[in-house]
Amino acid sequence: MATHRFDPNFTDHVVGAMGPKTSPRLRQLMTGLIRHVHDFARENELTVDEWMAGVKMLNWAGQMSDDKRNEGQLVCDVIGLESLVDEITFTLADEAKDAPTATAILGPFFRADTPYRQNGDDIVKTKPADGEMAFMHGRVIDFTTKHPLVGATVEVWQASTNGLYEQQDPAQVEFNLRGKFKTDQDGRYYFYCLRPTPYPVPDDGPGGKLLELMDRHPFRPAHIHIIATYDGYRPLTTQIFDRKDQYLTNDSVFAVKDSLVVDFLPRKDDPQAGLELNYDIKLVASESATNGT
Ligand code: MBD
Ligand code: FE
Questions:
Q1: CB atoms < 10 A from the CB of 2, how many?
Q2: What is the pTM of this model?
Q3: CA-to-CA distance for 97 and 114, rounded, in angstroms?
Q4: Does ligand 1 lie within 6 Å of residue 164's CB atom?
Q5: Which of 9, 93, 201, 254 has the fewest C-beta atoms lying within 10 Å of its C-beta?
Q6: Intradiol ring-cleavage dioxygenases domain spans which residues (predicted)?
């Protein structure tokens, strides 16, 4: 029985309006969404003005999104939804030492058209004066057999020291701080990049506005985004985080996992970089993910 003083049949009526051709999964999701949204509105006695403020925020997010920017995703990120869905989809037993590389959220600044580069290339095409150069390298390996995966794709992207990704910043050349690499005969990838620095998520849209309204800071800990793929293996989307960062325990989008925290170490005798990051990526074969089917 309804515990509220509104029409007790209304939500069932809306759910029941779905026709027989609705797929079972969509029916389940829409039923849950409608019930929760209705309960949310009743429990909070949501007013027309408050609801309309939410609609405006959604529209604002859509209007400022394009192939270079995904504001709807950022709105989800600041309320922890993308991180929660990531956890649900890729439940990894724990943060044991010997686990496959953990996933992390994609975020709103991925670009599908990032170019391939050669191992050893420098992804820093527009170099900020205060940027610290790092040599990032490692292997892509099969988590179970530990064998190197030859010809695996490793895609990376990072923001510059001014807190902006290249598509947010006209002063950076296109695809600055982005690149796709193929692992060599030993399963290795290697390139030069910046030591990442912390930065605020953009505050010019509804994502930033929501943070302000919730009295929360906008900072993300320094990170590098990675997508690693190899035929026959589960694609991996993740981020790695600098252990020295002050925002490690209070990321504005809740994406940090212990196993993704890395150490930048001093690098000697390399005129191109004073820091080095060694990071192996452990992928899981698709078969073992789906139990042989
Ligand atoms: C970012 O750079 C980011 O990686 C995420 C997940 C959300 C907002 C900005
Ligand atoms: Fe990011």
A1: 12
A2: 0.84
A3: 32
A4: no
A5: 93
A6: 106-283
